[in-house]
Each structure stands twice: as structure tokens, then as C-alpha cells.
Amino acid sequence: MGLSTYVTQVSRLLHDSSFQFYSQAELVEYINSGRTRVVRDTGCNRLLQTIYLSTGVEVYNFGGLTGFQITAPGTGYVTAPAVTIAGPGVTGGVTATAVATVTGGAVTDIVVTNPGTLYATTPAVTFGGPGVGAAATAYFINSSTIDCVNLTLYWGNTRRVLAYREWSTFNALARGWVGYLGMPSLFSIYGYTQTYIAKIPDQAYKADFDSVQQPPPLVDNTTLEVIPIVMQDPVQYFAAHLAKIKAQKYSEADMFYQRYNAEVIKAINSSYTRRLRYPYAVT
After folding, report:
1. What pLDDT was estimated at residue 276?
2. What's the CA gap between 119 and 141, in Å, rounded?
3. pLDDT at residue 272, rounded to an integer
């Protein structure tokens, strides 16, 4: 659905097709707020991110670097070379830092010391001397991430799905030993922006980070809508809800909010109930 279709839907709900009471710019603002609300309520904008966990690092921030894949160890490194990471390239973003470990003249590990903030694209990584040839790829959790649904480690030719615990239970069960390293088996989300891992990784692990992403704002009809079509209908009702709050017509705002909730339930039921869970069991 294009932005102009959303605007038409909302203006009709508000009986304001000629934009006498609400400007088009105002409606676009409400529509983008409605799109974000739909994604937060349904988790419909998913992204399976590939990340690397760092040795000895327990906490992974949304928008920060997580770890590195060493693509070339290089040679001749007498001491650990300085690791330089490009910044996130956005105003207010903090540049990440990391340190390398050298074994036998080659770079064998890189650990994040400051994950930085607001990373949305892969930054360049360079190494100082003495030594030559080291190269690595940095991995990060996209700054538009608003939730982690699943976290899965790669272990040889297998994937190991980490169990989830809410923070208080995770803290009680898994954080008694400080600095206890091993293969991670649990994760939790703290404060909506941080992922905690237990055990703390004893080496760099590749992982699938199944996430929910905030949708980019619609600017005009050329902007790609990332929300699946089955989840788009509720947007207009939440946008109308916000418009009525602005007009201080709270009873009408509540009616639109109730309609929004009903449309969300309809969208979820229409998309998640049509699959046969297991075709070989008779239940």
C-alpha cells in the first residue's frame, strides 16, 4: 500500500477528504506512528540478522557492534594491532572500539570493548601494524531493532536454539557466577534495548538474531512499505485515533482505538491460523 492510499483511508475516516481540519503532513505523521504501533503490537516486520558474539562479552546492545568474523588472520604481528572501526555515520552515533588478540603472529580473536550506537550498516574495519594482511568483518544489531524473538547459535554443522527467560528469572538462574565462560544456552532482554547471554561466550560464535524491526517512515509513494499487506488495515484506525486525540474528542478517539484492536486481532487470526502444525498427528 502506498502512502497516498493510507492518507485517503484516514481522511475518509475523519470525514475530512478535503483536508479542512487536518493537513496531509499531519496525517502522514499519524500514519507513520500507526505503522510503528502495528509492528510493536504484532511483530510483523521481522528480520533474521546474522551476528557474531564476542569472547567474554555478556551484553549486546541494539544498534551496537556484537563481534567479528576474521576473514584473514594476517602475518607478522608481534603485538596486538590497533583495531579501527568506522563510525555509524549518523548524528549522535558513537563509534565502536575493539581489541585484537595475536597468536603466532596472526590475529586470532577480536573482542568488542565499546559496541557503539546507532549502527545500521556494516562499518569498515582496519588494522594497524606491525604486521600485514589481517582483515575482519564487523557484525552488529541494527539500530532499528525493537525486539529479539529468537537467538540461535551455530555450532559446527548444527544450530543451537537458546532458551529465553524474562529478566528477573534469567538474573536469578544464570548470573550467579561472574565471568563464567562457556557455550551460551540462555538469553534475556533487559530494558527493551539490550540482549544478555548466559553462559558468557568462551569464543566467537556466529548466531541468527531473529528480530522485530521498526518500519522506516513513509515519505512519499516511492517509499517501500515493509509491513505485510495482511497487517496494513489496522494502521488507518490508529492514525485516526491519534487525530481525534489531537482534536480532544476522546470518545471518538476511544472508538477508533477499539476498532484498531479489533483489526489487529483479525489480521493475526487471518495470517497465523491457516497452517497445519503437524500433518502426521491426529488430534
Report:
1. 73
2. 7
3. 67
